[in-house]
Design brief:
The protein is mainly α. The chain has helices at residues 11-16, 21-36, 45-51, 55-68, 75-104, 114-121, 126-136, 139-143, 146-151, 155-161, 171-190, 192-197, 201-214, 219-251, 274-281, 289-317, 320-326; strands at 108-109, 112-113. Helix 2 runs parallel beside helix 13. The longest helix is centred in the last third of the chain and has 33 residues, at 219-251. Belongs to the KdgT transporter family.
């Protein structure tokens, strides 16, 4: 019989009843605080440090811990998984979107600009990927967050638009995003005790960085974006997630864990500023910035909720989650 005291309110168990709940619920709570009571989290000291500005540091810690789980033998699969996600979440959707708009000869249709749809489709949320992979996947899945480090930002949007000539890969930012993973790999391969020590990092930090990420999502901006942004986010979450699922299933041969691919069908929170950055590089996009920003904000929230739920549902339906638990 367990000596663990019984919970007065089983908060953790309640969150776990929802697929991806330890990430989704804090994210939604954070967005509520960030919209209606932002000053409450800006009082400073440890309160602000933990609940408002902790996401970058905590995700970096998770990346470092993830690197420790990657041995020299497993580095090949990590790169393979990264390539598949980058191909089906960014490159293929970007090419298809550009081809569609060029065929129609327009920069916008049905209230959706090419700036908006490219930003939503070609960007992915590394924090959500790490949250889902940390709960259901293995070190190879978690290491594939590198795809988000590569596509996170305006580079691919400017590249696909192909109008400014200023588009260049932010090499220093990409290197900075990968350094914690590399150091973690080095330390983990040198001393497995560090690997064991940091193994539960994901379960500890995911609720906290999810709440912090949520505080940056303004619900009023999502309302401004209206149904168009929500519908666009939902459609692209499913379509790009389905592409990554196909890559997991038919290229990586992950079997009943292929549903993990749906977790890549997201849009990162910092994608909200991408339309403005692109417009600075290409003034021709300026008229679309305000609407695109609102639509991207809506897509960020809907993808953060739908992608992990969809990934967990598919893995559970195909027996992947149960199989992993038994293993």
């Amino acid at each position: 019989m367990s000596d663990q005291p019984k919970a007065i309110v089983p908060l953790y168990d309640l969150m776990n009843k929802i697929p991806g709940g330890t990430m989704v619920i804090p994210l939604i709570l954070g967005s509520i605080f960030g919209t209606f009571a932002p000053d409450l989290l800006n009082i400073g000291s440890f309160t602000t440090a933990l609940f408002k500005t902790s996401s970058t540091a905590l995700i970096a810690l998770l990346i470092f811990a993830t690197g420790m789980q990657i041995t020299v033998k497993s580095s090949g699969p990590v790169l393979a998984h990264t390539g598949v996600i980058l191909l089906f979440k960014t490159i293929v959707p970007g090419i298809l979107i550009v081809a569609l708009f060029k065929a129609l000869g327009t920069n916008a249709m049905l209230g959706v600009s090419i700036l908006s749809i490219l930003t939503i489709a070609c960007n992915s949320n590394g924090g959500i990927w790490l949250a889902v992979a940390g709960k259901y996947g293995n070190s190879t899945d978690r290491g594939a967050y590198i795809a988000s480090a590569v596509n996170d930002g305006p580079f691919f949007v400017m590249l696909f638009l192909g109008v400014s000539g200023i588009a260049s890969i932010p090499v220093t930012l990409i290197i900075a995003a990968v350094v914690p993973l590399i150091i973690g790999m080095i330390v983990g391969n040198l001393d497995p005790k560090w690997t064991d020590l940091l193994r539960p990092t994901g379960a500890i930090v995911i609720p906290f960085f999810s709440f912090s990420l949520g505080t940056g999502i303004n619900l009023f901006a999502i309302v401004t974006g209206g149904a168009t942004g929500l519908i666009l986010g939902l459609i692209l979450t499913v379509l790009t997630g389905l592409m990554c699922y196909a890559g997991y299933k038919y290229i990586l041969r992950r079997g009943n864990m292929s549903g993990m691919g749906f977790a890549a069908g997201t849009t990162a929170g910092n994608a909200i500023i991408t339309p403005e950055i692109v417009a600075q590089a290409d003034p021709a996009m300026a008229p679309f910035v305000q609407t695109a920003t609102a639509q991207v904000a809506a897509a960020v929230l809907v993808s953060a909720i739908v992608a992990p739920l969809l990934a967990a549902y598919v893995m559970k339906k195909q027996g992947g989650i149960k199989a992993e638990a038994e293993a």
